[in-house]
Amino acid sequence: MPKASELKRGMVVELANEPYVVKDIEIRNPSSRGAATLYKVRFNHLKNKQKRDESLKGEDFLKGIDCERKLVQYSYQDGNSYVFMDNDSFEQYAIDAEAIENELDYISEGLNSIVAVLLEQQLVAIELPAAVSLEIVETTPGIKGATAAARTKPATLSTGLEVQVPEYIENGEIIRINTATGKFMSRA
Fold first, then answer.
1. In percent, how much of the chain has pLDDT > 70?
2. Among residues 65, 78, 99, 111, which one has the fewest Cβ atoms lying within 10 Å of its Cβ?
3. pTM of this prediction?
4. Helix, strand or coil for residue 5?
5. Helix/strand/coil for 33
6. Looking at the chain, which runs of residues are DSSP E strands?
């Protein structure tokens, strides 16, 4: 039984005897002394996709649901669905783009190390690796000798994600992006 303070995106919990997946978490630290930290959590119902917002205290307990977790690889997009393949059994699972809209900017062809969250053999959520490598398709030219300065510039990646990168990074380079924060980490 996870506490509200232990929730992460993609976790599946039970609310009012129904399965919900955690879509977004906003942490609010109160300014007054002795007040508890509040967690504003957006849940999506796994079956009918209804949204539900809850404000929870850090020590509130939620009932976890046992879900099967499998290591999968992104295969292809089929209309509005994204298809992932189990690395061991080669079984394929599809999920609507709406269910994984926050993760789409990090998914590129052949991406491995994705954890599929399955409930009753249905793909309900995915958990991305901590960092992914993506190619820069558009950025301003690098400036010679810019390594000493900590200035950044915008760069558009192959998935359409826009991030701030150091000035010395060029078009066509592969960089690592933190999937939790969406920030540049290093060259790949």
1. 94
2. 78
3. 0.74
4. helix
5. coil
6. 12-15, 18-28, 38-45, 51-57, 63-64, 68-78, 81-86, 92-96, 114-119, 122-127, 131-139, 152-157, 162-166, 174-178, 184-187
